Amino acid sequence: MPSFDFLQLDVFAARLFEGNPLAVVVGADALDAPTMQRIARWTNLSETTFLLRPTQPDADYRVRIFTPRQELPFAGHPSVGSAYAAIEAGCVPARSTLVQECAAGLLPVQVQGSGAMRIIHVQAPPARIERANAALAAALADALKVDLSAAAVHAIDNGPLWLVCDLGLARSVRTLAPDLSAIAKLCLAHGAVGVGVFGAEDGGDAAMAVRAFCPADGIPEDPVTGSANAAIGALLHHRGDVARYGHRYVASQGREVGRDGRVAVSIDAASGTVTIGGQCVAGVRGTFTLDHST
Q1: Catalytic residue among 18, 47, 101, 201
Q2: Is 201 among the catalytic positions?
Q3: End-to-end CA distance of the chain, in Å?
Q4: Rounded Cα gap, residues 274 and 267, in angstroms
Q5: Are 54 and 107 in contact (CB under 8 A)?
Q6: How far is the C-alpha of 275 from the C-alpha of 264, rounded, in Å?
Q7: pLDDT tens digits for 176-232?
Q8: What is the pTM of this model?
Q9: Nearest Cα to 54, choosing from 88, 105, 121?
Q10: pLDDT digits (tens, 9 = 90+) for 78-99
Q11: Which residues neighbour 179 within 8 Å (Cβ) at sequence distance 6 or greater?
């Protein structure tokens, strides 16, 4: 029976139980896509990744990313966590720069520190941003149970497609009690992975509060979401609003589901390129054995 090294990490946190869990299957080149999807459904985490040999000469490793429902071309916490796992498993050298190959292309990775203090920064793919029409904004307002103008809602594709809503202030973000069934229907209708909301914190160690709802993929609320945070950073640059938070800021996400993640966001002033980063901690190290009958 084939066996693979397996890690389960908490991403965007320095301590276990505070970040977003990620399952990583190492050396998974022998697995086909349907088997990867079955494993992702089995782990039942927001994402499971599979580390593979690269196919591009400039890449150090390749990763495939699956939710319980579908494969994604890019996702933030799986990219950060997979880079960490690749170093921990000895798949790549522990150096300061790496290149990740994924379905969204080749993404630069920066590595700071080592061991428990290691911080991984991954450059997100370029984002395509469109303002939502009045009908979509109204439907999102109903689903989130808040007042929203069309100007506050955007569809942002940076690998996955996010419906992003600027709620202004963190207290509006943190007190949301959305209609998850309505959000799931909207996401399915528009091909979106989820709805991301954000607002400004008033003091503390983070500039922004973020929440992300992905019920169509079986994730009512994602604990800490790299691609949604990258989409928000791209939106700030797109609308000339970077000064509101700064070109480098920290976003807080996860308190509402019993986590306390931190995402470091960096926005290049000239290009608008967004990098997201954070710490990781391994909670499980072991072997995944695949029965021939599966």
Answers
A1: 47
A2: no
A3: 11
A4: 5
A5: no
A6: 8
A7: 999 999 999 999 999 999 999 999 999 899 999 999 999 999 999 999 999 999 999
A8: 0.96
A9: 105
A10: 999 999 999 999 999 989 999 9
A11: 142, 143, 144, 145
